[in-house]
Amino acid sequence: xxxxQEVIDTLNQLLTGELSAMDQYFVHGLMYEDWxxxxxxxxxxxxxxxxxxxxxxxxxxxxxxxxxxxxxSREPLNIGKNTQEMLQNDLNYxxxxxxxxxxxxxxxxxxxxxxxxxxxxxxxxxxxxxHMYWLEKQLGLIGxxxxxxxxxxxx
Length: 155
What we know:
The chain is mainly alpha-helical. The chain has helices spanning 5-34, 38-64, 83-110, 114-145, 147-153.
C-alpha cells in the first residue's frame, strides 16, 4: 500500500529516536552491570529490548507503506556519568519520544492514516505508562530515600 511520504518520513524520524533510545539504554545497562547494580541492569536491559520492539513495529509499518526504513541514523546519545544523571537522561529521552509520537499521531489524523495512528497510539501508551512512569518513580525514590539508599536497593 503506497503511503503518504510525509507520514513515512515521520515514521523514519520516530525510528531514529527509538533506535537511539535503545542504544542509550544499552550503554546505561552495561554501566549498571559493571557497577554491580544488577536490579537497574535488568530493568534497563528490558527497556532497551522494548525500544527494539518499538523500532520493529515502525520498520514493519514503513515497509507496509512502501517506504524504506532508515535504520542507520541516530540522534546524539546522552550517556550519564552517575546513576541519577543516567536515569534523568533516559527520562528526558522518553519525554522527547512521547512528544514526537504525539506530533506524529496528529499528522496521521491530518493525513487520514488511521491505522498508523493506532500503531503510534500503542507506542505512546507504552512510553508513558511504562517507560516514563518507571523512570519518574526511580527519580522520586532517590529524592525521598536518598541516592545511597536507592543504590543499595539496586545491588
